Amino acid sequence: MVTPTHPGSAVAAETAAALAAASVAFTGPHGDPRYASTLLKHAKQLFQFAKNHRGLYQNSIPSARSFYSSSGDEDELLWAAVWLYIATGHQEYKAYIAGANNLGGVRQSLSWDDKFVGAQALVAKELMTIPAILQLILQGKLPNNGRHAEMRSNVESFLCNVVQHGDGRSGRLTPGGMLYLQPWSNLQDVTTAMFVLVTHADHLAAARASLQCGGVRLPPAQLVSFARSQVDYILGKNPMKMSYMVGVGKRYPLQPHHRGASLPSIRNNPGKISCGKGAQYFHRSAPNLNVIDGAIVGGPDNNDHYDDSRGNYQQGEPSTYTVAPIVGVLARLLHN
Length: 336
What we know:
Layout: H1 9-25, H2 33-52, H3 57-60, H4 74-88, H5 91-99, H6 116-127, H7 146-162, E1 172-173, E2 179-180, H8 187-206, E3 211-213, E4 216-218, H9 220-234, H10 259-262, H11 275-282, H12 313-316, H13 320-335
Antiparallel strand pairs: 1-2, 3-4
């Protein structure tokens, strides 16, 4: 638990952003106005708490330090302010965005620990000139200059890097065509980048604009096509001819690094399995006893090779922050 004396501003601000975003989703003729109002109320409270009580949560909860330590809270605070501005239109959130000390610059990726790209993409949407029939929620409320324009420039530079028309800091393509950035759970960077890419592509399309990468002009359809190529790779169109989403296709990872998937079902083994006894299942060479349908593993290396071994956690560990973004990408591609 985080408190005023044991703060966790990144966690509080991230939760504020999630609640504010959810309030937008539940607002409207087919939503739930009362629930949206409750979500927004708590989002405002958490944002205020995060602003007033700064501090990294792993310092308040030391047991978290070895797993998902936060590198800072400036991105989450900005992320929350942008979502709260979208949800409310209140000037205090607009002022926070304009006065933020750190807008992130051109990032390498969007991740569980770095939300700057997300905030930049949302602000960029609000700066675009949209035909009246296609106006977005806050079109025209943010000036297309100064700090706001800087955020748009940053996210578009990030996307130019992603689609291989930049400086390469956001990864290079493998021989088989996968965007590759890091050896540990590389697909988390692929799915988040593709989510931002298709989202921004739609914003550009609504504004009848394109992504300008130096002297190269990339229309929205080309951005969506790049995203589709990455999804196709993940789902099996790759040199290994393997789907990296478990349970999809004829060939997929059989030994993901996942405790629940590798242990026997409670129906077959209702007794308690201690950590020590679990080792026998971890070291088995056979497929996992349970198929964790829909999970996406970390993915192959920079030469498109994947070692399907339970102990290979860098390539074989699935995560919610890898699979969540691809849901949005798949929905966009299905809509197309």
